[in-house]
Write a structure and sequence with these properties.
With 199 residues, the chain is an alpha+beta fold. Helices cover 39% and strands 14% of the residues. It is elongated.
Length: 199
Amino acid sequence: MATVSEETTTICTHCDRPIPSGNIDLHTVHCGRNLEKCKVCGDMVPKKHAEEHYFNTHAPVACSLCSETMDREILDVHKGEDCPQRIVTCEYCEFPLPAIDLSEHQDICGNRTEHCYRCARYIRLRDRYVHETTCNGVSEAPLGTSRPAAEREPRPRRRDTPAPAFPKRHLLITIAITGIAFILGSFFYQKKSENSTGH
């Protein structure tokens, strides 16, 4: 049995592809008439679709957020990391806003204060994380006091006032309304159950 020898090929001068030597003349005519090499990526595209190929694949595009024009390849990175109009959240209040406004917002938002339950001081939000790691639960001396705590004059004790008692009348009204609501709810639920089993 004879083995089929490999067919000789010739490189097309138009598309630079190896073409069987027997078909090279026909291919060259067809290739030169119908195909065009893309100047950007080097792909062979039909001449009638060359412009469409360029606009769909290589043409610069505008960012939908900030309207800046850029290469298509970097658009996703731009929208995710660089675009000044991309939405980011404030690290203090988690409010979503455009990246261009974040710095000014965080300057204001970070200066708001929050009460520390351990040392009973008000701490700026921008200092909260450092404070939480260093707070030992002891409130520091008020600003402006230079004398040690033992030498300071004791503060007068506040008079303890009892918490206002919940009026008994309000309690009875609340219990009565709750009871009526429970009875009405049971009645309507029972009616609904009877209607659904009767059908």
